[in-house]
Amino acid sequence: MSKTLPEKLSAPELDLLSPMLNKEGDSWTADFRGLTLRTALQPIYSISHKRIVGYEALIRAFDNDNSAVLPLHLFELPSSDAENLLLDRLCRYLHIQNYSGIKDQLNWLFLNVSPRVVTSGSQADSFFAQLLEKTSLPPHRIVMEIVEQPTDDAERLKETVAYYKKLGCLTAIDDFGAGHSNFERIWNLSPDIVKLDRTLLTRATEDHKARQILNGIVSLLHQSGCLVLLEGVETRDQAMTAIDAGVDFVQGFFFRKPTINLSQLSHTPADLDKLLQEYKTRNQVTQDPTRQLVDFFRGIFQEATSRLGGGSTMSQACQELLNHPAVSRCYMVDSKGIQIDDTLVSDTGVRSLDPRFRPLESTTSADWFRQQYLRQALAQPESLHVTAPYLCVTGAYMCVTLSRGYYQNGELRVLCCDILANPSQSQ
């Protein structure tokens, strides 16, 4: 780049950057160190809306022979903080200039911002505010993506994110779940959107436990007030995993690759109808066993609680339940959630006991009030309730719990029964 850069760049520097942009037909390019920079956009889809809700802007560099230069190599070119800041601003300028010319008055533009640039630049990025004013792009249509990296100045990063929010932009954390990302960053920055790293998706597609972890992360992020975007979706199975995880948005080659042909953006539909229909079919199959459990055990449970209400012992009342090969244990709880007497363990339950968790086996006088299945049974006596599979604290195995409230001598009690979620684990 022939232009001599100052030691430090002051905002807004639009006058310095404007000559580096060139109009080519309906789009813009930029010059940097003999390279031609172009904007590539990749659609971001809302699963529930079944349509595009935004685009991520990515920089594409080409040499004099029009051969592609890796973005990694492009961002290694700056030799000073000033030039690094200039390149970042030039990319943002180029992306916004291109996006503001697209006939789309609704969707978001996701812009990547390096923490190195954010923390070394001015908090009051008047350059960006004047850039939006110059291009007439409303700030509420911009999502500022902070790439997950360690930073020496976390407080400055927090202040900068707060500035973009005050400006009216949305903020996003990129690559969550990889490298240095953690929930502390979420608490500190309070982003509007969290982009999950594709490694989480890859593992979740291949491993059931990893899928449960992914689902849990999505749930925690939602409870933190963040919308969740899963990037790197490349296959149909990964798309189904994303849908099942409950993420809000998806992005990846399976739906559409980034393109520098911006005129084709309006022709990028994703057939989410078919994916959702397939999910509904699969989900119906996976949910049926739970409903079948209720249907199968309703009569047996009603008979057991009737016997208990009539004065039978737990062993007498629960004999048929304990003889079922999937049942691991039965126990009784009072209206305050306190377990009455010892747990009755079936032959199946005995085989599933792991000596490593022996300190957890005795549950006499245990307090189960925190458990949702107990509170439901107390709130709706005489109805049979069932949980989703969860990790049983008494043996660290996956189970499903059935519960039913009943009255014995005028006192409300709850009969609970744990069923192995995977009967093979008792073998």
TrEMBL record:
Residues 20-272 form the EAL domain. It comes from the Bacteria. CDD domains: EAL, PDC1_HK_sensor. SUPFAM superfamilies: EAL domain-like (SSF141868), Sensory domain-like (SSF103190). Pfam families: EAL (PF00563). GO terms for molecular function: cyclic-guanylate-specific phosphodiesterase activity. Transmembrane segments: none annotated. PANTHER family: CYCLIC DI-GMP PHOSPHODIESTERASE PDEF, SIGNALING PROTEIN. This is Diguanylate phosphodiesterase. It comes from Marinobacter salinus.
